[in-house]
Q: What sequence folds into this?
């Protein structure tokens, strides 16, 4: 027991921290592989940009400017 906390708690925290880092690293690896294979990354950015411009255009045209009346 260290500082009134059981040693099993510290072991659990260390184990979970290691598992968490490994999971995050695997996720980053899989996303990186997906991103660079078959031009997926640039297609994703292109579709996101196109969707953002569509939303911007819709919001822009919702309210007219005072000088357009």
A:
């Amino acid at each position: 027991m260290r500082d009134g906390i059981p040693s099993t708690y510290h072991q659990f925290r260390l184990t979970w921290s290691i598992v968490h880092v490994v999971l995050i690293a695997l996720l980053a690896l899989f996303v990186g592989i997906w991103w660079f294979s078959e031009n997926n990354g640039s297609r994703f950015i292109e579709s996101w940009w196109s969707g953002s411009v569509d939303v911007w255009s819709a919001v822009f045209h919702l309210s007219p400017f005072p000088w357009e009346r």
Q: What stands out?
A: Residues 7-68 form one domain. The first helix runs from residue 7 to 36. The CA atoms of residues 19 and 25 lie 10 Å apart.
